[in-house]
Amino acid sequence: ARYSTEIQAMMFTFGDVRTPLPASAQLIEQIVKKQLIEMIIMAAHVAQDIRGARILLPEDILFVVRRDPVR
Predict the structure, then answer these.
(1) This prediction's pTM
(2) Residue from 57, 54, 7, 10 nearest 29 by CA
(3) Residue 18: partners with Cβ closer than 8 Å, 6 or more residues away
(4) 2: part of which helix (H) or strand (E)?
(5) CB-based contacts of 9: which residues, under 8 Å, 6+ apart?
(6) Of the residues 8, 28, 35, 60, which has the fewest C-beta atoms closer than 10 A?
(7) How do the pLDDT tens digits run along the chain, 71 residues long?
(8) H helices of 1-71, where?
(9) Which residues, 6 or more positions from 43, have their beta carbon under 8 angstroms from its beta carbon?
Protein backbone atom coordinates (compact mmCIF):
# COMPACT_ATOMS: atom_id res chain seq x y z
CA ALA A 1 0.00 0.00 0.00
CA ARG A 2 1.55 3.20 -1.15
CA TYR A 3 -0.57 5.71 0.75
CA SER A 4 -1.47 3.72 3.86
CA THR A 5 0.14 6.21 6.25
CA GLU A 6 -1.81 9.11 4.78
CA ILE A 7 -5.04 7.13 4.72
CA GLN A 8 -4.59 6.09 8.34
CA ALA A 9 -4.03 9.73 9.29
CA MET A 10 -7.19 10.72 7.41
CA MET A 11 -9.15 7.95 9.12
CA PHE A 12 -8.01 9.25 12.50
CA THR A 13 -8.85 12.83 11.53
CA PHE A 14 -12.36 11.90 10.38
CA GLY A 15 -13.14 10.28 13.72
CA ASP A 16 -12.30 6.64 13.26
CA VAL A 17 -10.04 4.86 15.74
CA ARG A 18 -6.75 6.33 16.96
CA THR A 19 -4.66 3.70 15.16
CA PRO A 20 -6.58 2.22 12.22
CA LEU A 21 -5.69 -1.26 11.06
CA PRO A 22 -3.31 -1.40 8.10
CA ALA A 23 -5.74 -3.76 6.37
CA SER A 24 -8.46 -1.09 6.54
CA ALA A 25 -6.17 1.50 4.97
CA GLN A 26 -5.20 -0.96 2.23
CA LEU A 27 -8.85 -1.72 1.50
CA ILE A 28 -9.67 1.98 1.20
CA GLU A 29 -6.69 2.50 -1.09
CA GLN A 30 -7.82 -0.37 -3.34
CA ILE A 31 -11.34 1.05 -3.55
CA VAL A 32 -10.08 4.54 -4.41
CA LYS A 33 -7.72 3.19 -7.07
CA LYS A 34 -10.50 1.15 -8.65
CA GLN A 35 -12.85 4.14 -8.76
CA LEU A 36 -10.15 6.40 -10.22
CA ILE A 37 -9.41 3.89 -12.95
CA GLU A 38 -13.12 3.62 -13.77
CA MET A 39 -13.45 7.42 -13.93
CA ILE A 40 -10.45 7.75 -16.24
CA ILE A 41 -11.79 5.03 -18.54
CA MET A 42 -15.18 6.75 -18.65
CA ALA A 43 -13.52 10.12 -19.31
CA ALA A 44 -11.51 8.57 -22.15
CA HIS A 45 -14.75 7.32 -23.69
CA VAL A 46 -16.24 10.81 -23.32
CA ALA A 47 -13.21 12.35 -25.01
CA GLN A 48 -13.33 9.89 -27.87
CA ASP A 49 -17.09 9.55 -28.41
CA ILE A 50 -18.33 13.07 -27.70
CA ARG A 51 -15.38 15.25 -28.66
CA GLY A 52 -13.74 12.90 -31.15
CA ALA A 53 -10.38 13.49 -29.49
CA ARG A 54 -7.67 11.03 -28.54
CA ILE A 55 -6.32 13.27 -25.77
CA LEU A 56 -7.91 13.24 -22.33
CA LEU A 57 -8.53 16.71 -20.87
CA PRO A 58 -9.42 17.68 -17.29
CA GLU A 59 -12.81 18.81 -18.61
CA ASP A 60 -13.56 15.21 -19.61
CA ILE A 61 -13.05 14.05 -16.05
CA LEU A 62 -15.18 16.91 -14.74
CA PHE A 63 -17.90 15.91 -17.19
CA VAL A 64 -17.88 12.37 -15.80
CA VAL A 65 -17.97 13.61 -12.20
CA ARG A 66 -20.88 15.97 -12.93
CA ARG A 67 -22.84 13.14 -14.55
CA ASP A 68 -22.36 10.83 -11.56
CA PRO A 69 -23.82 12.42 -8.39
CA VAL A 70 -22.44 9.66 -6.16
CA ARG A 71 -18.85 10.62 -6.96
Answers:
(1) 0.77
(2) 7
(3) 12
(4) none
(5) none
(6) 35
(7) 689 899 999 999 888 788 888 999 999 999 999 999 999 999 999 999 988 998 999 999 999 999 887 76
(8) 4-13, 22-46, 58-67
(9) 56, 60, 61, 63, 64
